From TrEMBL, chains A, B:
<dbReference type="GO" id="GO:0006355">
    <property type="term" value="P:regulation of DNA-templated transcription"/>
</dbReference>
<dbReference type="GO" id="GO:0043200">
    <property type="term" value="P:response to amino acid"/>
</dbReference>
<dbReference type="GO" id="GO:0005829">
    <property type="term" value="C:cytosol"/>
</dbReference>
<dbReference type="InterPro" id="IPR019885">
    <property type="entry name" value="Tscrpt_reg_HTH_AsnC-type_CS"/>
</dbReference>
<dbReference type="InterPro" id="IPR011008">
    <property type="entry name" value="Dimeric_a/b-barrel"/>
</dbReference>
<keyword id="KW-0804">Transcription</keyword>
<dbReference type="InterPro" id="IPR000485">
    <property type="entry name" value="AsnC-type_HTH_dom"/>
</dbReference>
<dbReference type="InterPro" id="IPR019888">
    <property type="entry name" value="Tscrpt_reg_AsnC-like"/>
</dbReference>
<keyword id="KW-0238">DNA-binding</keyword>
<protein>
    <submittedName>
        <fullName>AsnC family transcriptional regulator</fullName>
    </submittedName>
</protein>
<dbReference type="InterPro" id="IPR036390">
    <property type="entry name" value="WH_DNA-bd_sf"/>
</dbReference>
<dbReference type="GO" id="GO:0043565">
    <property type="term" value="F:sequence-specific DNA binding"/>
</dbReference>
<dbReference type="Pfam" id="PF01037">
    <property type="entry name" value="AsnC_trans_reg"/>
</dbReference>
<dbReference type="InterPro" id="IPR019887">
    <property type="entry name" value="Tscrpt_reg_AsnC/Lrp_C"/>
</dbReference>
<dbReference type="InterPro" id="IPR036388">
    <property type="entry name" value="WH-like_DNA-bd_sf"/>
</dbReference>
<feature type="domain" description="HTH asnC-type">
    <location>
        <begin position="1"/>
        <end position="62"/>
    </location>
</feature>
<dbReference type="InterPro" id="IPR011991">
    <property type="entry name" value="ArsR-like_HTH"/>
</dbReference>
Amino acid sequence: MDRIDRKILDLLAGDSRLTGEQLGERVGLSPSAAHRRVKALEESGAILGYRARLSNAARGNPSTVFVHVTLTDQRQATMLAFEKALAQTPLVAETYLMSGESDYLLKVLVRSDDSYERIHREILSALPGVQRLVSQFTIRTLNGGE
Amino acid sequence: MDRIDRKILDLLAGDSRLTGEQLGERVGLSPSAAHRRVKALEESGAILGYRARLSNAARGNPSTVFVHVTLTDQRQATMLAFEKALAQTPLVAETYLMSGESDYLLKVLVRSDDSYERIHREILSALPGVQRLVSQFTIRTLNGGE
DNA sequence: GCGAGCATGCGCATCGGGGTCCCGGCAGAG
DNA sequence: CTCTGCCGGGACCCCGATGCGCATGCTCGC
């Protein structure tokens, strides 16, 4: 993992369809050498996979809701059960275990043709051990926010 | 944009390296027809591009910090200046204009070899019109969180 | 109401480009 | 000196890209 590998990772993170030749000329290698680097990065696990980036419209114009969750207690079993149930809730895009007041922060993508009330009920019923649940709505997404 | 197109978008969002043949057999089309669909989706703007997904280690083991920002006022000019400066701050991965107490929510990726204090100063000095700034740290990222 | 014409989307065939793999060369370390 | 790791170059093959003919369904005019 040298400077060239990092450059290749940066380039592929921006556009994974770059050809071996294009990669080669940007990092100063031949196409075959650049391609070998890529294969090695895939096999080492540095590159997890390749994804298409979709437009907002294609994703159903979702809006983002941040949900702060407080559990009934902080025993290992409670947290584990919560996290396990979370992994099977496709509405939740990202989850963070937080320091400070609330225990977890969930980033939920709500499609514009869904009502948040339904999502709220669904999340509450699917997740065990929830004591309190505070939702924070976005008006607009400026940057990133897949 | 019919059911087949949506299926194709779902599949490519998961793995953009699926071949025309693989796509075709999963949506019930010939390879060429599936490929034509993909090209059309690219040209219509539904597919914005293709990206490599990198491992946490390859990204420098960043941890996520959520920063709640309150501006000095809510005049159009103040918000515009803030947003404009934000667009040129690469540390900030995502930005949301929020309803409720704080005005903006920033998702900041801090590389493990950076100190947050430096980031904090950098953000404060780069962004105009900030009145209050509350940071919320993550202990662990469970799911997603690109 | 009905038929002709056109548009849309399919499968099949073909062509070119890039992925893939092997080989030979070279530099650095032991 | 030899071995190892990495590079460049070339051959092969598969996949992406595109043109062609055909079926289906819709529209418009009679």
